[in-house]
Design goal:
- The structure holds two protein chains of two kinds.
- By secondary structure, chain A is an alpha/beta fold.
- Chain A folds into three domains: 126 residues, HypD, alpha/beta domain 1 (Rossmann fold); 117 residues, Rossmann fold; 45 residues, no CATH class.
- Chain A is built from 16 helices and eleven strands.
- Chain A has a five-stranded parallel beta sheet with strand order 2-1-7-8-9.
- In chain A, strand 3, helix 5 and strand 4 form a beta-alpha-beta unit.
- Helix content of chain B is 21%, strand content 40%.
- Chain B is built from one helix and five strands, in the order E-E-E-E-E-H.
- Chain B is elongated, with a radius of gyration of 15 Å.
- The chains are: A alpha/beta, B alpha+beta.
- Bound molecules: iron/sulfur cluster.
- Iron/sulfur cluster binds next to helix 14 of chain A.
Chain lengths: 384, 81
C-alpha cells in the first residue's frame, strides 16, 4: 500500500537502529551532566504509537539506555468510570438508541460495561463513523439517537462536522454525549507532576494533523523537553526516536516534525473551525488515572445545545473514584511499568479488565499483556 | 482510536455535500471531505489527492513532496550504513 509499505522496509530500519546506537551514547552523556544516568526515558504520547511499538517489537531493538514510556494518549483508556456509568444510564433509556465506536464497549464502569448493558437489552450500536450515527437518527425518527463522542482533537472535527450536518438537514433526534479531550492540557498536567521522570517526547501524529506543531512550543520552551511529532509506521517511529536522541546529543531542545507529509505548523483550518464552532472548552474534565485536569475537555457550546445529550437528558453526574488496585495513573505518568501492578495478568486481564489501560489494544497494560506473554524477552528487558 | 489510513480520492460524488469515494488499498469507501476543502481547494479539485482517512472523514491532505523528502532522507541514512 502506498505511503505505508515504504515506511516499513527492514533495511532502512536496520540503518536507523545503527544511527540510534551511535547517537545514544553522546545523548546520555549530555543528559548525565555529571551525575550517572542509566536510561533516557522517552514517552510516546499516543496510544496508536504504543500499539505500533509493540506490534513491531521496537522496544527490543533499542539500545539498553533508551526506554520508552507509554503515555496517556488513548482516549478510550482515560475515560473515567463515572462517564461510562452515564453512558450506560443514557443507553438504558427506552427512548434512546445509543451509538458508539467499538473501542468503548469493554471499558469498565463502576458496575458494568456498555457490552454488558447491551447484553442486558439496551439498544447500543457500534459504528465506524459519527456519520453512521446520523444515518441511524434519520432512519429512526421516533427515537433519540445519542452518539458517544470521544477522542482527542483527531476525532473532534468529525463529530463537530456531523453536528453541523444534522443542523443543516434539520435532524432533531440526534445528540452527542460529548467527551472529547485535549492533548495539550493533559501533557502539561503530566509535565507538572513532581514524580515524572521523562527526558523527551515522541509526539502524537494524527492529533497534530489537526492542531499543528505550534501548540507544542511550550513543552520545549517552558518545560525544556524536546518533542518530535511522529508518524505511525515503524520507520517513522524509529526516525523520531533518533531525532529526539540527536537533539540531546547536540544540546538542543526543540519541537521537530518527522511527520511532515501530514503535519504542518498551523494544522488543519476547516477541522479547527468546526471544533471551535460546535464545542467550547470544559472548565474541568476528569481523566481516569490522572484525575481532574482544568480546561482539558470539550463540551457542546450553548448555540448547539439542542445537540447536547447532557442538556436533553439530566444525568446523575456522579463521580466514581478509580479502583484502588489499579495503578493506571502511575503507568500513564511513566512512574511504573504495567507488570509492577499487583493485579496485572491475574485479576486484571483483557478479558476482565480492572483499569482502562487493560481494555484497549492501545493501553499500556493490554499491550504488555498481549505481547509480553508470548515474548518473555520484553519482560526480561524491562528488568522485571 | 486515533488511527488513520492513507487513501486516494478517486471520485467526487457530491461536492456540495462534501462526499467523495476514496480507494484504500483497493477497497473503495465513501468519505466526507469537508476538512480538506477551503478557499484554495474546491471540492472538485480534491480528485486524485492522497488523504488520511479517519472515522469516515478525510482528516488531512497528504503532502506527496514532503513524503518523498522523508523517504529520501531514510534512503540516505540507509546508504551511509
Ligand atoms: S494491570 Fe489492570 S489494574 Fe493494574 S494498572 Fe493495569 S489496568 Fe490498572
Amino acid at each position: 500500500m502506498k505511503y505505508v509499505d515504504e515506511f516499513r522496509e527492514p533495511d532502512k530500519a536496520k540503518a536507523l537502529i545503527k544511527e540510534i546506537n551511535k547517537v545514544s551514547e553522546s545523548a546520555i552523556n549530555y543528559l548525565s551532566n555529571g551525575k550517572k544516568k542509566e536510561k533516557i526515558k522517552i514517552m510516546e504520547v499516543c496510544g496508536g504509537h504504543t500499539h505500533a511499538i509493540f506490534k513491531y517489537g521496537i522496544e527490543e531493538i533499542l539500545p539498553p539506555t533508551v526506554e520508552l514510556i507509554h503515555g496517556p494518549g488513548c482516549p478510550v483508556c482515560i475515560m473515567p468510570r463515572g462517564k461510562i456509568d452515564e453512558a450506560i444510564e443514557l443507553a438504558g433509556n427506552s427512548q434512546v438508541i445509543f451509538v458508539t465506536f467499538g473501542d468503548t464497549m469493554r471499558v469498565p464502569g463502576s458496575k458494568k460495561s456498555l457490552m454488558q448493558a447491551k447484553a442486558e437489552g439496551a439498544d447500543i450500536r457500534m459504528v465506524y463513523s459519527p456519520l453512521d450515527a446520523l444515518k441511524i437518527a434519520r432512519e429512526n425518527p421516533d427515537k433519540e439517537v445519542v452518539f458517544f463522542a470521544i477522542g482527542f482533537e483527531t476525532t473532534a472535527p468529525s463529530t463537530a462536522l456531523t453536528v453541523l450536518q444534522a443542523e443543516q438537514e434539520g435532524i432533531e433526534n440526534f445528540s452527542l454525549f460529548a467527551n472529547h479531550v485535549l492533548v495539550m492540557p493533559a501533557l502539561q498536567a503530566l509535565l507538572s507532576s513532581p514524580d515524572l521522570q521523562l527526558d523527551g517526547f515522541v509526539g502524537p501524529g494524527h492529533v497534530s494533523t489537526v492542531i499543528g506543531t505550534n501548540p507544542y512550543q511550550i513543552i520545549a520552551e517552558k518545560y525544556r523537553k524536546p518533542i518530535v511529532i511522529s508518524g505511525f509506521e515503524p520507520l517513522d517511529i524509529l526516525q523520531s526516536i533518533w531525532m529526539v536522541l540527536k537533539q540531546f546529543s547536540e544540546g538542543r531542545c526543540e519541537v521537530e516534525n518527522q511527520y511532515t507529509r501530514l503535519v504542518t505548523e498551523k494544522g488543519n483550518n476547516p477541522g479547527l473551525n468546526a471544533i471551535k464552532k460546535v464545542f467550547t472548552v470544559r472548565s474541568l474534565f476528569e481523566w481516569r488515572g490522572l484525575g481532574e485536569i482544568p480546561d482539558s475537555g470539550l463540551e457542546i457550546s450553548p448555540e448547539y445545545k439542542q445537540f447536547d445529550a447532557e442538556f436533553k437528558f439530566s444525568l446523575s453526574n456522579k463521580k466514581v473514584a478509580d479502583n484502588k488496585a489499579c495503578q493506571c495513573g502511575e503507568i500513564l505518568k511513566g512512574v511504573l511499568k504495567p507488570w509492577q501492578c499487583k493485579v496485572f495478568g491475574t485479576a486484571c486481564t483483557p478479558e476482565t479488565p480492572i483499569g482502562a489501560c487493560m481494555v484497549s489494544s492501545e493501553g499500556a497494560c493490554a499491550a504488555y499483556y498481549q505481547y509480553g506473554k508470548n515474548n518473555p524477552k520484553i519482560l526480561v528487558n524491562s528488568n522485571r | 482510536m486515533c488511527l488513520g489510513i492513507p487513501g486516494k480520492i478517486v471520485e467526487i460524488t457530491d461536492g456540495d455535500r462534501f462526499l467523495a469515494i476514496v480507494d484504500i488499498g483497493g477497497i473503495k469507501r465513501q468519505i466526507n471531505i469537508a476538512c480538506i476543502v477551503d478557499e484554495e481547494h474546491s471540492a472538485a479539485s480534491c480528485l486524485g489527492d492522497w488523504v488520511l482517512v479517519h472515522v469516515g472523514f478525510a482528516l488531512n491532505r497528504m503532502d506527496e513532496a514532503e513524503a518523498q523528502k522523508t523517504l529520501d532522507l531514510l534512503q540516505e541514512i540507509s546508504a551511509a550504513n
